[in-house]
Specification:
heterodimer, A: 392 residues, mainly beta, Methylamine Dehydrogenase, Chain H, four-stranded antiparallel beta sheet, 29 strands, B: alpha+beta, Ubiquitin-like (UB roll), five-stranded mixed beta sheet, 19% strand, globular
C-alpha cells in the first residue's frame, strides 16, 4: 500500500510525519537538528530515501544535512570525523561562496539595498533545495542573498551558477521583508535545459540553457510599490507552482495578486478573481488536475494573518478567477497564523492529499483534495516549509 | 594537548560530548587551535569562522582564563594555561535571539 512522508522544516528543528495511504493515523518523528531553524527539506525523486535538509542559524551559519535512509539518520556530507590531523579538512558541504572576478578576486556586482544604495552580496542561508528528478547526487539550492548553487556530488561541494546573479538587472534586485531570497526552483520535466526560479524582490527568471543564462519573465506583473509598476525586475514574487504535465503553465502568488502564465512565463495575467484578498505566500497545483490550484489568502502585507481570524484554503478548479473556500476542519475564529511560501505541498495518491503548515505550529492535511482538513500536529515550532513524498 | 569547549549545538554537529582535546603543532594561537579543530571535525568548518575570510562569526566569542580574547589577533599566542591544558579555550555563543 502506498504511503506518504511529510517533511516539515520549523524554526526549531525538523519533523517527519508519516502515514499510510489512508492518511488518518500519523507517526511523528523529530525534532531533528533541535534548536536550529530548518528552512527546507526535500527528498530526491530519483531515490526517495535520499533527503536533503537546510539547517542554519545566525550563530553558526549554514549546515547541509543529508539522509540516505529516509530520515532515520543524518550526516553532513563530507563532514565526518577526520582522524588524520594535518590533512585538509573535507567538510565543504556548507561552503556557499559567490563567484568573484578571476582577475581581482572581488565581487562581480552589488545589489540594491533597502535604502536604494548599492550593497555587497552576502551569503546568509539556503532557503530551498531542489533535487534533480533523475539524479540523487544533483541538487540545486536557492540562497539568500539571491543566487543559485548546484551540487553534483550529493551536497559535499557547491558551486554557483553565476549567470543568474550576473544578469544585467542584478544591481536592481533588492530584498523583500524576509531578505533577498531565491525561494522557488522548478525544472521542466520535458526539457532538462529549462529552469524557472523566483526571487523576492526581483521577480521570476527562466533559463533555457541549463542555468548558464537567464531572462526575467515578469511581463504582466504590476507592483504599486515600484516607481515603474511594470518594471522588468523588482517584483516581490512569493511562490510559483507548476503541474509536471504542463510545464509551460505557471501559477504565481505574488506579494499581492495571484497570476497565471500560459507561455512559460513570457507573459502573466491576473487570476485573483473572487478571492477575498489576493495577498498570500503559498500556491500549489493538484497532483492530477492541472487546472486545480490552491492558495491561502492572507489579510495584507502588514497583517500577516487570515481575514477575520478565519483560516481558509481557496481552491480554483478552473485555473483561477473562480475560487471556493475550503474551511471544513480549519479554525474559523481567533486564528492569526501565517502560512509561509514553502509551507504547502501535495501528494500524488489517487485522492490527492494537500498539506500546509502554519507559523502557529500546526500542520494540516486534507486527504480529499481540500474538501476536509484535520491537523496532523498542532504544537510544533513555527513551520517554515512542508514537502511531501509519495512512497510506493 | 589543548582543551576546547564548544557550544552545545556544535558538539551535536561534531558528534562529541564534553570537552574536545586537540593536538596543536607549533605556537598555540586562535588560528592554530581552530585549524586543528576543523581538521579533526570537518563538519565544524564554516561554523566558527567564515569559510573565505576566516573571520570569527559575529555571534561567537572566544574566552580563556576569564578573559575575552575575541578581539585579539588570531595569530597572538593564547595564554600559557591554555597551551598547557590547565585551562580550556572557550567558544561561546552570544545570548541573543530566541
Amino acid at each position: 500500500m502506498s504511503s506518504v512522508r511529510v517533511l516539515v522544516g520549523t524554526r526549531k528543528g525538523a519533523f517527519i510525519l508519516s502515514a499510510d495511504g489512508k492518511r488518518a493515523k500519523w507517526d511523528v518523528r523529530g525534532p531533528f537538528f533541535g534548536g536550529w531553524p530548518v528552512y527546507h527539506m526535500k527528498g530526491s525523486p530519483a531515490d526517495p530515501n535520499r533527503i536533503y535538509a537546510s539547517q542554519c542559524s545566525d550563530w553558526f551559519g549554514q549546515i547541509i544535512q543529508r539522509s540516505d535512509d529516509g530520515g532515520k539518520t543524518w550526516d553532513t556530507p563530507g563532514g565526518g570525523i577526520e582522524f588524520t590531523p594535518g590533512t585538509m579538512p573535507k567538510g565543504l558541504s556548507n561552503r556557499f561562496v559567490y563567484d568573484t572576478s578571476a582577475e581581482t578576486g572581488k565581487a562581480l556586482t552589488t545589489h540594491q539595498w533597502y535604502d536604494g544604495t548599492q550593497h555587497p552580496w552576502e551569503f546568509k542561508r539556503v532557503w530551498h533545495l531542489e533535487p534533480l528528478g533523475t539524479d540523487p547526487q544533483t541538487v540545486f539550492a536557492g540562497v539568500e542573498d539571491a543566487a543559485l548553487f548546484r551540487t553534483t556530488d550529493g551536497a559535499q561541494t557547491w558551486h554557483e551558477l553565476p549567470g543568474l546573479r550576473g544578469h544585467s538587472s542584478g544591481p536592481r534586485w533588492s530584498p523583500g521583508a524576509g531578505g533577498m531570497c531565491l525561494h522557488t526552483i522548478l525544472f521542466d520535466p520535458g526539457d532538462p535545459r529549462r529552469i524557472y526560479i523566483a526571487i523576492s524582490a526581483a521577480g521570476a527568471f527562466r533559463s533555457d540553457d541549463g542555468g548558464k543564462s537567464w531572462k526575467p519573465i515578469n511581463r504582466g506583473l504590476k507592483s504599486p510599490y515600484l516607481p515603474d509598476q511594470t518594471a522588468e525586475v523588482g517584483h516581490c514574487v512569493h511562490h510559483i507552482a507548476m503541474h509536471r504535465t504542463r510545464p509551460g503553465v505557471l501559477f504565481m502568488q505574488k506579494h499581492w495578486d495571484v497570476m497565471r502564465s500560459d507561455d512559460a512565463g513570457d507573459s502573466w495575467r491576473e487570476i485573483s478573481g473572487n478571492l477575498p484578498t489576493d495577498f498570500g505566500f503559498v500556491i500549489d497545483v493538484h497532483a492530477h488536475e492541472p487546472e486545480t490550484i490552491y492558495v491561502v489568502p492572507i489579510k495584507s502585507d502588514s497583517e500577516h494573518y487570515p481575514l477575520d481570524g478565519k483560516l481558509g484554503v481557496y481552491r480554483s478548479r478552473t485555473g483561477g478567477n473562480e475560487w471556493e473556500a475550503l474551511t471544513k476542519g480549519l479554525p474559523q475564529r481567533d486564528c492569526y497564523v501565517n502560512v509561509l511560501r514553502d509551507a504547502m505541498a501535495v501528494d500524488s495518491l489517487d485522492s490527492c492529499g494537500v498539506y500546509f503548515g502554519t507559523t502557529g505550529g500546526q500542520v494540516y492535511a486534507s486527504p480529499d483534495a481540500g474538501d476536509t482538513w484535520a491537523p496532523i500536529v498542532r504544537d510544533l515550532p513555527a513551520v517554515l516549509s512542508v514537502e511531501v513524498q509519495t512512497l510506493p | 594537548m589543548i582543551r576546547v569547549q564548544l557550544p552545545a549545538h556544535l558538539r551535536t554537529l561534531a558528534h562529541v560530548e564534553g570537552e574536545v582535546n586537540l593536538q596543536v603543532e607549533g605556537r598555540v594561537t586562535q588560528r592554530s587551535v581552530l585549524d586543528a579543530l576543523e581538521a579533526v571535525y570537518p563538519a565544524l568548518r564554516g561554523t566558527i569562522r567564515d569559510h573565505v575570510t576566516q573571520q570569527r562569526r559575529p555571534y561567537l566569542r572566544f574566552y580563556a582564563c576569564a578573559e575575552d580574547l575575541s578581539l585579539d589577533s588570531p595569530d597572538s599566542p593564547l595564554p600559557d594555561a591554555v597551551a598547557t591544558a590547565a585551562e580550556p579555550f572557550l567558544i561561546i555563543g552570544a545570548i541573543a535571539g530566541g
